[in-house]
């Protein structure tokens, strides 16, 4: 009974987005990339010339968020990554984005990916996946993704940015990155996108 919510959480570049999008398509459920919300808030703060750690500016940006903000093409890249992670540590920003995420999931069920879907946004989600991979593998993937987009990147730098963002996300007091107690861990270090999808779908189908 009720709607089906599948939570897909995990650290940066673990393959959550690709997996969640494919699971949603396979299950016929809407998909929400919740990281995009924090990215769009971070971008608005940067555009306003403010510091993403500024709680007043960040909360105002979160409250002013519009659907068009999520369509912007400049939400990915080192600046946007760190700005998103900075605004995401501010409790008022998280509170401002909570209802939207819950309403989205409750309307027709959904697959949502993020950091705190299984712990905070939908603690009673039907299925919770926590997707991980080694930091080396995640950095390699992000590096290749940046290269494919024609963005100049340095593997060492990408690695250190991922480490910094993981630490910032895992150590914040509010909604830190961590697996829910009832989450199923999926390590994609040695899996390509196809194999990760097959493994994820098997876990989900088993629990629906
Ligand atoms: O998933 P993605 O890497 O796009 O998320 C960008 C940032 O947004 C993360 O580093 C994290 O700080 C924040 N985030 C969050 N909670 C979520 C989704 C993303 O704090 N549910």
TrEMBL record:
<keyword id="KW-0547">Nucleotide-binding</keyword>
<protein>
    <recommendedName>
        <fullName>Cytidylate kinase</fullName>
        <ecNumber>2.7.4.25</ecNumber>
    </recommendedName>
</protein>
<feature type="binding site">
    <location>
        <begin position="10"/>
        <end position="18"/>
    </location>
    <ligand>
        <name>ATP</name>
    </ligand>
</feature>
<comment type="similarity">
    <text>Belongs to the cytidylate kinase family. Type 1 subfamily.</text>
</comment>
<keyword id="KW-0418">Kinase</keyword>
<dbReference type="InterPro" id="IPR027417">
    <property type="entry name" value="P-loop_NTPase"/>
</dbReference>
<keyword id="KW-0808">Transferase</keyword>
<dbReference type="GO" id="GO:0016301">
    <property type="term" value="F:kinase activity"/>
</dbReference>
<dbReference type="InterPro" id="IPR003136">
    <property type="entry name" value="Cytidylate_kin"/>
</dbReference>
<dbReference type="Pfam" id="PF02224">
    <property type="entry name" value="Cytidylate_kin"/>
</dbReference>
<keyword id="KW-0067">ATP-binding</keyword>
<feature type="domain" description="Cytidylate kinase">
    <location>
        <begin position="6"/>
        <end position="194"/>
    </location>
</feature>
<keyword id="KW-0963">Cytoplasm</keyword>
<dbReference type="InterPro" id="IPR011994">
    <property type="entry name" value="Cytidylate_kinase_dom"/>
</dbReference>
